[in-house]
Amino acid sequence: MKYAVLIGDGMADYPIEKLGGRTILQAARTPAMDSIAARGKTGLAKTVPDGFPPGSDVANMSILGYDPAAYYSGRAPLEAASMGVALEADDVAFRCNLITIENGTIKDYSAGHISSDEAEILIETLDSELRTEKVRFYPGISYRHLIVAGNNLGAETECTPPHDITGERKDGYLPRGKDGEFFSGLIEASMVVLELHPVNLKRVQEGKNPANSIWVWGQGYAPKFTSFQELYRKKGAIISAVDLLKGIGIYAGLDVIEVPGATGYLDTNYEGKASAAIEALKTRDLIFVHVEAPDEAGHEGSTEKKLKAVEDFDSRIVAPILKHAEISDEPFTILVLPDHPTPVSIKTHTKDPIPFAVYRTDKPDPDSVKTFDEESVKNGSMGLVKASDLIGLLVKG
After folding, report:
1. Per-residue pLDDT tens for 19-50?
2. What is the DSSP annotation of 264-278?
């Protein structure tokens, strides 16, 4: 048996008035996902356990078969693993966004989805200007970067993700609590360094949002994982443009497959991801394919972009992998699902249970559900399940 787990980050949504009261999944043209739902079994999965924030870290850890209650220590240490940044026992890793602040208000959590090349220059400048024995900066992809603080600094600081407070005044959400003053000062110092940086002056001239501040959040210590192969007796791999997902994969002992042109946005290399997934399954039992674009569109509050992202995910990821599964000499199990909702109406994550559909090519055994969306799967035969149990359910047949 081969397994493909296809994750459309943030696909789930709430009913939208301009779509006639339908959700994105109900309104989008998604024949491949509908086919999987119609020929397989469906249900709802709780990806965010009680007491946890509805982050992509927690939700995707659950989907990969790891209960956050046992394995979660923070988002940033997972990203550090993907970036090749080794953490000492007393190191605290922070996600460091490059953001846009305008007149004291957080205008854009991604600085206009700044390019990785531009961002690297800015992060290297910050490391040169602000690095101390307490903190150091590491460049990542687009707006997503890393700060590592030594000697347990910031482990208990209260931080807020910037995508949750777009449009809000900066001063009301600066880091607080223990060591909060230090990290608030670091944010203020970054604004001085970045304001007149040549990269930002050029972006402003081009009508783009400048990356004129950092924002720190998602901190934690390095976690300890049991390997995926030890847990599930399957050799697996993961494909994603996002350091967070790659980091979970690294800690899980999965092969991390890099795809040229994978951006984590609407312009990502869908075809490259699908081809790489099919190729990976020649030598592995299971592949996780993660696409970030629907989530980014949800954070932007764009119904149009999210519709496009979901339809692209269906036609350019799900459809070719489904076609390959159907003509393969080996039986296939395909699981398709989002990690969490990112409703365009609120521009942030929620912890509502998400729809999922599972199709086995050798045992279709469909339930009564005919389409893949938040409402239809409420009638699914699998009911409401704990997401971290899904992989175990799949591999045990």
Report:
1. 999 999 999 999 999 999 999 999 999 999 99
2. SSTTS-HHHHHHHHH
